[in-house]
Amino acid sequence: MIALLLFSALLWDQAAAWGFKDGVLHNSIWLERAAGVYHRESRSGKYRLTYAEAKAVCEYEGGHLATYQQLEAARKIGFHVCAAGWMAKGRVGYPIVKAGANCGFGKTGIVDYGIRLNRSERWDAYCYNPNGKECGGVFTDSKHVFKSPGYPNEYENEQICYWHIRVRYGQRIQLQFLEFDVEEDTACLADFLEVYDSYDDINGFVGRFCGDELPDDIISTGNVMTLKFLSDASVTAGGFQIRYSTLDTASSRNSSAPGKNNFLSGKFGIM
Ligand SMILES: [Ca+2]
């Protein structure tokens, strides 16, 4: 009976980790993709895109700027990003699923800045492309090795790849760089790999890497990580292989026997 209770608690934790709350799957990368809406920022950082540039970013990837309705449809199934971006017709806003003091003025919905008269203002972009063929992927295995596109050949120019890693609630992710060779420049503006200790590329910035020196291992604080690789229009390099594996937090030593585990809830991971 106690085992059953523990197991039920575990299942509940697992469900919470995957983000079901009030019937909405929060921060779901899968559904976010299903909705075809995604967030993009400039290569040089947050809030650097004019309207024309934001349009060009989406069109470059074969999509277009999302409409308000498309952004709202994505929000309704859990798309939550704390960064204002251009939408179609010169509108600016961002989707908030979960109210928070630091984002969205404590409200949920599309935080709508309206249609901007000044199209030279700089924001991020919300693109819509239901058929997007990005490199990258979503990994939920307890370990995996992933590679730059085309590896062991050199990666190509103008790649945009996102890898989202999401492991079991209560586990952490350890990244180990096996091979690393990315065009080098002093600020890593040309080609780079970025690592985020988060489910998106807004929060939890860990580092931006280029060159051919192997970065040190990186261990997440929660059960999600995002990696983003961009290459520019010239000069490629050998690329990379990265292995991730999972580390159990102190309270969850043996993940192969779920009934015996007692996961700490609420301390680690995405709820
Ligand atoms: Ca390059």
TrEMBL record:
SMART domains tied to this protein: CUB (SM00042), LINK (SM00445)
Main location: cytoplasm
Endpoints of the signal sequence: 1-17
Disulphide bond pairs: C58-C127, C82-C103
An annotated Gene Ontology molecular function: fibronectin binding
Gene Ontology CC: extracellular space; transport vesicle
Highest taxon in the source lineage: Eukaryota
Segments forming domain CUB: 135-247
GO BP annotations listed: cell adhesion; fibronectin fibril organization; hyaluronan metabolic process; negative regulation of BMP signaling pathway; negative regulation of inflammatory response; negative regulation of neutrophil chemotaxis; negative regulation of osteoblast differentiation; negative regulation of osteoclast differentiation
Protein name (Swiss-Prot/TrEMBL): Tumor necrosis factor-inducible gene 6 protein
Annotated organism of origin: Ficedula albicollis
Gene transcribed to yield this protein: TNFAIP6
